[in-house]
Known about the structure:
The chain has helices at about 1-25, 60-75, 125-140, 150-180, and strands spanning about 30-40, 45-55, 80-100, 110-125, 140-150, 185-195, 205, 230-240. By secondary structure, the chain is α+β, with helices and mostly antiparallel strands. It is elongated and about 90 Å long. The strands form two sheets. Strands 3-4-2-5-7 form a five-stranded antiparallel sheet. It contains four helices and eight strands, in the order αββαββαβαβββ.
Amino acid sequence: MxxxxxxxxxxxxxxxxxxxxxxxxxxxxxxxxVSVSKPVMQDTLDAALYYxxxxxxxxxxxxxxxxxxxxxxxxxxxxPAIKARLTGYRVWYEENRRPAREPxxxxxxxxxxxxxxxxxxxxxxFKALKQLVGAFQHDGLIVNHIGFSVSPALREQTxxxxxxxxxxxxxxxxxxxxxxxxxxVLRFDQVSLNGAGGGPVWRETQLNAFxxxxxxxxxxxPVAEPVEENISLTLGGRAMLSTxxxx
Length: 247
């Protein structure tokens, strides 16, 4: 009898297990997405400037740029709190053609060599960078833009801090919907994390493409201030629900 009972039990589990697995595999699933966010103050100031020169020859333009940017780079790289790099060195010839006033005469052609080199800087020390930008404007550099953003390190730190609340919000939303249908959440079969925030959000201060006028007075730094930026985190999941009410 014991042998028969054992074989009967094994036969029952052999038949029941696939059935239970099939039921679970074909049970109801619920796809959910939640988002959480937190405002943080922008912690990085970026500035881009360039020096422009004109001349009769390419050599003259290049020498002017080189001399000016040597001094610029010495000042920009002297402060360890400011990350600076030189980019975008270009020299080209600009031709200006005007029609002749008399019929049959050749067009009047004039031209000049033009060149520029760009400098980009970023820092968490807003005051130091703004003062340096003001000094470069005074020296004749042209501001392309000044803008604020949240650094990658602060963005990642903020998103990690949001993860527990995002997970709790996902579980709460799944339970709320499951209760409405009279079923229970068995588990989350899939979970996906998608940090958002749209990448760096700039609060950019356009200062026009003109150099600050040279004056005998002191250097005046540009006015620019950061703002709060919303850092968000999106969490998605697929919840497996019980197929029988009261399971």
